[in-house]
Design goal:
The chain is an alpha+beta fold and about 240 residues long. About 40% of the residues lie in helices and about 35% in strands.
């Protein structure tokens, strides 16, 4: 069988075109397979990441619960410590009496009824008579008797409170800084209270502004009713007078 040149050329062209189409289809299939593999790997990685996040969240929840538990325990410990301290303080302040006598520290709040105020007082068993800070002392007569008025204060700058009282005697005081010299001090009576001890007692009047304590309590106040524990201060709180109805 014989073919002419035109017929043979047409046949070769058709065969060549069929070969090219087959090659393009193979490359596309390869790309699709590669994309499918990549997608699968990404999905696997996403799933692993989600599992890890889930584990981290569980750890965070557990940590927060532990923090909350520790915070509560700390709060309860502080409250317990505060209560224990208060109980110890109460226990200390409850030791205020022995052998039917009141125990005072070396310093106490002294309530002066005349001016209805509390002043720091030094409890001094070495002093016979008590003394109180008095400035602007002025003597005068009232109904034929000798009286004195003075300003009582316990800190410079704070408003002074004036007191008038009858002079019951004059005390002669020997100054330790000036041997042989005596000074005269008016002696008055004032009603004072320290803790549950309250009575009328004698005070000499002197300027005590340069001293730490405006009031000094001597033995005449303490006699037979007070014991002094020099290791303590302010065993009793400030006295609060009951309000008038």
């Amino acid at each position: 069988m014989f073919f002419n040149k035109k017929t043979l050329l047409s046949a070769f062209t058709a065969i060549a075109m069929t070969g090219c189409a087959s090659t393009a289809n193979t490359e596309q299939q390869a790309q699709i397979s590669q994309l499918e593999n990549t997608l699968s790997e990404a999905q696997t990685l996403t799933q692993q990441t989600q599992e890890e996040l889930k584990a981290v969240n569980a750890t965070l929840v557990a940590s927060q619960e532990k923090v909350d538990s520790l915070t509560l325990a700390l709060k309860e410990s502080k409250q317990s410590a505060k209560k224990t301290t208060a109980e110890k303080t109460t226990s200390v302040t409850k030791v205020t009496h022995a052998n039917d006598k009141t125990i005072l520290g070396q310093a106490e709040w002294v309530y002066v009824s005349k001016v209805k105020d509390n002043f720091k007082g030094r409890i001094d068993t070495g002093a016979a008579t008590s003394s109180i800070n008095a400035v602007d002392i002025e003597r005068f007569e009232r109904d034929g008797e000798k009286w004195v008025r003075f300003n009582l204060t316990h800190k410079e700058g704070k408003k002074a409170q004036m007191i008038e009282a009858k002079i019951i005697r004059i005390a002669k005081i020997v100054q330790s800084s000036k041997p042989g010299e005596e000074t005269e001090r008016p002696v008055i009576q004032l009603h004072v209270r320290i803790g549950d001890v309250a009575h009328l007692t004698e005070f000499t009047l002197t300027d005590r502004l340069h001293m730490e304590y405006p009031v000094l309590i001597g033995r005449t106040f303490m006699q037979d009713v007070v014991l002094v524990d020099v290791s303590k201060e302010y065993i009793f709180p400030k006295y609060q007078a009951p309000a008038k109805k």
